[in-house]
User: Which sequence fits this backbone?
């Protein structure tokens, strides 16, 4: 056993742990390096169960310096928090991969929770080198990950509700869509929500006075151009529009108000989480490096950090990070046929953030814009060119994080030589 090996021994025998995770109870299995089942337990998902698990591991040689590695099919929750203390390696095994391993032990396709725990323990016994343990991210990094992902989810939820509201307004209230069309991200703006609360139907909207419209805009926090906007909206509301029958229109107005309450809550949640991210992210040691890259603001940089973590040993090289992000192409070959395509198995959140990063960098970095243009001239479509740009920039990010350097535009996108320029 090398000095960096953290696996626990009982006597001269290595011990591996597998846990079949469930909502209220968990099944635990311990096997040795010969594949023999050494112990099994059924524990509850509470403090008493966690204590029983820790005592069981200690009984079979688990120590602070040489903890027993654990395989489990989840990467979050209180049980994971208990297991990740100290130097322990915790392996989050994909349930699909675990199902394939199960077929190696039983051809009858039977399934049981104790049997799954044994399968997970044997995965570590035979193929631990082929699986990646959970990264040893700092508590600050993990807290930023929670906030950044929650803020991203709240934005997706907000947009989904805004789309539902827009579809509903099209059915009976086209005047509202016309009045708010000139405002960016209109249905999520506080002015729009206040106006819809004041006039949930087109009939009520047509009766709004200039004073009432101005008051609604002020309640939403608008400071400038209130009189002009109120007059413009009033003219649109009082124009001639098709109407639903009065009873149907009132019913649709009540439905719209109910949906508006959900959208209002989603907008508030998104704003509060964004403020939490802005407060927490600058405290991280990697924040300065991430923010030095063109196209990355606090929110987007926090999403990048949330997915790649701050464990410097997580990725062996930049190629591993690029594959994880789904930005590098993958070659599929069989016989005489081969194809180079984009990756389907990837971190979807990181890939989504990378698309936004590459797009925003086009306006803030001349080198990134020139790289994108060259890819388009060579025949790449827009998405392929942006993916190639993201692939290059995330490789540069890996380099800067490893060397603790800020982004350098000249080093990242050096000017082409005279020979290259003439060849182009």
Assistant:
């Amino acid at each position: 056993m090398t000095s960096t090996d953290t696996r626990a021994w009982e006597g001269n025998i290595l011990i591996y742990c597998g846990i079949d995770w469930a909502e209220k109870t968990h099944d635990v299995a311990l096997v040795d390096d010969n594949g023999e089942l050494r112990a099994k337990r059924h524990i509850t998902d509470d403090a008493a169960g966690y204590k029983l698990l820790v005592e069981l591991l200690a009984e079979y040689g688990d120590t602070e310096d040489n903890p027993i590695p654990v395989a489990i099919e989840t990467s979050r929750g209180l049980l994971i928090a208990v297991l990740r203390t100290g130097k322990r390696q915790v392996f989050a095994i994909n349930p699909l991969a675990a199902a394939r391993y199960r077929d190696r032990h039983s051809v009858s396709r039977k399934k049981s929770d104790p049997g799954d725990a044994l399968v997970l323990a044997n995965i570590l016994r035979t193929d631990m080198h082929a699986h990646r343990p959970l990264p040893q991210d700092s508590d600050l990094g993990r807290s930023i990950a929670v906030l950044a992902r929650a803020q991203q989810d709240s934005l997706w939820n907000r947009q989904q509700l805004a789309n539902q509201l827009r579809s509903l307004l099209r059915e009976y209230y086209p005047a509202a869509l016309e009045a708010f069309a000139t405002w960016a991200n209109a249905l999520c703006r506080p002015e729009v929500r206040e106006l819809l609360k004041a006039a949930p139907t087109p009939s009520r909207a047509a009766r709004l006075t200039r004073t009432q419209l101005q008051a609604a805009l002020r309640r939403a926090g608008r400071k400038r151009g209130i009189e002009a906007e109120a007059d413009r909206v009033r003219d649109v509301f009082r124009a001639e529009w098709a109407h639903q029958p009065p009873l149907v229109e009132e019913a649709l107005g009540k439905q719209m108000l109910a949906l508006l309450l959900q959208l209002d809550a989603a907008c508030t949640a998104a704003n509060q989480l964004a403020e939490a991210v802005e407060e927490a992210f600058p405290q991280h040691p990697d924040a300065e490096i991430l923010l030095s890259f063109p196209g990355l603001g606090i929110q987007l940089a926090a999403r990048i950090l949330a997915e790649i973590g701050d464990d410097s040993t997580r990725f062996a090289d930049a190629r591993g990070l690029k594959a994880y992000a789904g930005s590098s192409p993958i070659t599929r070959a069989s016989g005489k046929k081969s194809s180079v395509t984009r990756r389907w198995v990837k971190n979807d959140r990181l890939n989504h953030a990378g698309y936004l990063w590459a797009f925003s960098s086009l306006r803030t970095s001349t080198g990134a814009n020139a790289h994108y243009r060259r890819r388009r001239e060579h025949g790449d479509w827009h998405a392929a060119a942006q993916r190639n740009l993201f692939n290059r920039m995330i490789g540069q990010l890996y380099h800067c994080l490893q060397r603790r350097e800020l982004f350098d535009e000249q080093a990242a996108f050096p000017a082409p030589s005279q020979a290259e320029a003439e060849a182009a």
DSSP finds 19 helices and eight strands in the chain. The CA atoms of residues 30 and 36 lie 9 Å apart.
